[in-house]
Amino acid sequence: MKKSINRKMCLCVLICSFLLPVNAQVYNFRYKPITISALMDSISAKTNIKVSYDARAVPVDSLVQVDVSQMHPFDLLKSVLKDRPLHISYRNNQIVISEQVQEDVSIYLRFKGKVIDGSEGDALPMVNIAVKNKAMGTISNMDGEFEFVVPANCLNDTLVFSFIGYSNEFYPIKNIESTLTVRLRSHDIKLQEIEVRYEAIEDIINGIVKNRSKNYINEQTILTGFFRESIKQDQKFVQVSEAIIEIQKPSYNEFLNLERVRFVKGRKLSGLQTMESVNFKLEGGPYQFSRIDVARYLEFLPKDGYDDVYQYSYEGIDYLNDEMVYRIGFRPIEDDGELKYEGIIMAHSQSYAIVHVDFELTKRSLKNSRKALIKRSTRRIKAKPRVARYYIDYRRLNDKWIVNKIGGEIAVYINDKDEKINSEFVGISELLVSDCKIDREERFKTSELYKSNYILADEIKETDQEFWDNYNIIKPDDELEKVFKDRK
User: Fold this and answer.
1) What is the DSSP pairing of strand 221-233 with strand 236-249?
2) DSSP letter at 173?
3) What is the mean pLDDT of residues 237-264?
4) What is the DSSP letter of 187?
């Protein structure tokens, strides 16, 4: 009974804060010239009202002078930013500032369609879709469906559809109708045409390491990304969170500088089904996934001055972008229970660039992974990790390769004897890099950064009603699309 009362009390407080009128809290603000960024940080510190904003739209370095009495921070920021084309909203004790949606959507070209196997007619998931020689890209979902938004100035460019094991397909944008069916033809791989001896594996591994600086961008880049995180309990969605993020990625030659992430905007669906007994959360999300980059950190590859951890095997060849790629298997030399992985590295046969990696914790590592994967739990709950698998994919941008998409799946079996609950929770995370620009100067402010202990669903205080705007995303598959429609 006591537990039930506490739940009702918590729910009541949440509803009351949601209904609190904007003008219930007013403050005095007096600042000599201060940057807008510092003003927003000060508001958060003084009032406990969180301010989130799109750093590309807000002139954070502009100076303002403030001297007002009895004003709510929402009204203050509306006044300070009144001459900017911004959308400013206040809800759940958070102010959200974003760029106004363009009324004239004709400046963007929007395509949708489906990618299928040209012979069998089956849907092809995870197909790379990009504008040729430009950084913009997206992928097809698990049903082979896609949506792609590109600026109108790309009218004379070409869309490229690429998938491992298939020939590329090219579509001039000016000839595309709004809906497109893409049929990819599989490569006829004849293994007898190529002979690879055991010694060649070492040559390939050495080539990957030695040619890294040639194959990847050695300047700071700012990546625009779409991140989706979903949680299922016993095959039913209990939470879905989506966000547009930006990643400050250092040069591939700067090993000590780490990626930084800032949140732009997002939406979430929670309470789809009440989580029974366990409040299951995924920690880190965009922060952790921004730092998965095998080509940059050379995970699973030999490092000078260190003992070899992995052994390698030749697993044949494949094709990507109509070019041959090597498949190199790796597994621990000694699977001693430490957290170690096994998987496949795919490397371009000419440049030795890593183009794709699939990896997962070994079975023995899984048995000892509870402390590493599960940060917080109670003694009465037994949690057993069942799966921890990931992938990273790269796409070509002229003569370089950039991160294209990263995904991961963690499955945990939960047993709660007190509540007589046996459940399997599955967390699936996907990061799509939809754009990339070289920017040597931009530095994300500490106050903007997404931290390692953040929970994405907790960080999304207000769902952006114009969430899609002109950003590229991974189109929800049929199952997830139904979840979104049912919640409207």
Assistant:
1) antiparallel
2) G
3) 90
4) P
